[in-house]
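Two quick folds needed for the group meeting slides. Do the first one here.
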Amino acid sequence: MNEYLIIAKHCLSISVGYAILYFILLFNEIFMKQKYSTRMYIVKNFLKSFILFYIAVNMSYDLLSDYLEGITILDNNMIRIYGSLYVSNDIVALIVVRRLPLTTKIHHTVTTLLLLYFFTLDINDYSNIGILILVYSFFSVYAFTVNFYLAARYFRVEDRNYVTKYINKNRYIDNIRHWSYYIYALLCAINWTINSIIYMVKIYNNTLNWEYILYAVIMSMIIRDDLILMDWLKNKSRIVVI
């Protein structure tokens, strides 16, 4: 029950974050020109990038500290708290952000269901898929620049009458897109490699069970979204950035 209270607390905190960030962005002229659904989408992605950055820094520090102290057993409670924070933004987005793309809704629903199942697992028991969920989530948080770009791209100004005034800002946004693609591609490659190795070991030892097979089917949808987003970032990054 405590885990579900943690999710509720994180969802409440993130909802407050939505309101605060929305209010701050109301002072931005470009933001105010957007439709309400687009404004909420911008807030969602800015907020998620901040949350992922927070998790990346703090979770890495906690895991490294435990390792240096000789602690090899992962703290289930700590991992679940970070997992709840990771997914709570997706849960809130499903409720408050209008007109989310269908693929995004499916993605957020899948991550929510995986989190609820993750709460029932012992991360130190390698017979279950807990370690796979942890590995995928751990590397995913370092892609926080992708979500930042998904929000920041709306602040580009394409009007030729204002291009001189905003050229530096546009260049910064293009640079974020450019580097987000390479970071995202690298993280996905590492992620898929580690997961593939785990599956090969399972197959070699004849310990691959139905849980791993079902997880592979579910993750194929997530990977498909990763490939689509990566291809989109790549095409956008073809613009030469000076």
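Then this one, please, same format:
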Amino acid sequence: MKSLAKLTFVNSKRESKFGKPSIETRRAKLLVRLDEQLNVAKAEQQGKAFQVLQTKTVTNKSTGVSETRQSNKNIKSWFWKDKAGKLNCEVRYGSQTLALGKAGANAFQVANLQELVDNLQLIKTALTAGELDAAIEAVVAARKAKSA
């Protein structure tokens, strides 16, 4: 025990693996997805397709050799046109839609792509200010309850 006497013992709790509280990590994840959706909307506004390259390691089954390839990442857009020609957009955290507005409202509606970009910027600002924390936590709690 004389060896252990040289150590300084404290009561401590390990933080999340990213060194931030979990809500900040969740905000950061959603912020990345919002940026992707902004880029998708801006590209569509210009008549282009937005593409992100991702690196994958693939093992050849016959030779067993691993090689690295780059391919396009499939990004599903959160927005679509309804029958009236208006754009509807939902904000997703993972596979779940965030409830942002009135009860039962799962999307917001805009007239054109420029309005969509402006509203996504507004949501991004609200996210960084912490206004969406309750909605994110509700989705996470529902996911945990479903898996339990």
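Slide caption for protein two: The radius of gyration is 22 Å.
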